[in-house]
């Protein structure tokens, strides 16, 4: 029985790094590549990091019901394509979704069996420093992301699990342990 793991939290909290390390520890875990209307950052590739869609194509696909979830975040749209998720689940593989908090709440409604993990920064100030030091966004975009993050952090109690990303090794170990525990449970109940 495949499991779906939703990893969410504010922008800059380290979701991508934690998921990369999680997949190194549990190679059978598949990543569902999200779609976005934002432009690729240096080194990002279409279909590997994101499905990069223009606004019109994204809107058309929302209208067609192609998304499991979708949300607007800091002026850009993000979403999980149903076909992307279904492809992995049809193989019987466990899947991880790296999505925005708004999208994670939609998944809770459509896939209540999904395991939801909220990644928390050690402090709001640390989150600000991470976003600014990335150097990938203009100061106005960083400010918008921080404003959104305040509201997202207030919602963390709604999630099944919370992991504080204050130490990368410890946070990775906690996430890996959590996923292994749920996969073992799914395996036991399937047999």
UniProtKB/TrEMBL annotation:
Record keyword Cytoplasm present? yes
Q: Where in the cell is it found?
A: Cytoplasm
Guanylate kinase-like domain spans which residues? Answer: 2-180
For this UniProt record, the keywords arranged alphabetically read as follows:
ATP-binding, Cytoplasm, Kinase, Nucleotide-binding, Transferase
Q: State the superkingdom.
A: Bacteria
| Catalytic activity reported | GMP + ATP = GDP + ADP
Q: Which CDD domains would you find in this protein's record?
A: GMPK
Per the record, GO CC terms?
cytosol
Q: Where does ATP bind?
A: 9-16
Q: Which GO terms describe its molecular function?
A: ATP binding; GMP kinase activity
- Keyword Hydrolase attached: no
The Enzyme Commission number assigned here is 2.7.4.8
Major subcellular site: cytoplasm
What general EC class does the enzyme of this chain belong to?
A: transferase
Q: What HAMAP family does the database record attribute to this sequence?
A: Guanylate_kinase
Family, similarity comment: Belongs to the guanylate kinase family.
Role: Essential for recycling GMP and indirectly, cGMP.
**Name assigned to this protein:** Guanylate kinase
- According to its UniProt entry, this protein's organism is Patulibacter medicamentivorans
This chain is encoded by the gene named gmk
């Amino acid at each position: 029985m495949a499991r779906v793991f939703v990893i969410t939290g504010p922008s800059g909290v380290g979701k991508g790094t934690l998921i990369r390390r999680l997949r190194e520890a549990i190679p059978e875990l598949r990543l569902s590549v999200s779609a976005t209307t934002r432009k690729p950052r240096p080194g990002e590739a279409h279909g590997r990091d994101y499905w990069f869609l223009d606004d019109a194509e994204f809107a058309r696909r929302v209208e067609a019901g192609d998304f499991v979830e979708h949300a607007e975040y800091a002026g850009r749209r993000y979403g999980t394509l149903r076909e992307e998720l279904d492809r992995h689940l049809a193989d019987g593989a466990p899947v991880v979704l790296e999505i925005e908090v708004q999208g994670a709440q939609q998944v809770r409604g459509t896939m209540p069996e999904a395991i939801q993990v909220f990644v928390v920064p050690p402090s709001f100030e640390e989150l600000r420093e991470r976003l600014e030091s990335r150097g990938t966004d203009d100061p106005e975009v960083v400010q918008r992301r921080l404003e959104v993050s305040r509201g997202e952090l207030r919602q963390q109690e709604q999630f099944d699990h919370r992991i504080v990303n204050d130490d990368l090794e410890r946070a990775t170990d906690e996430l890996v342990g959590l996923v292994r525990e749920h996969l073992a449970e799914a395996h036991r109940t399937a047999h």
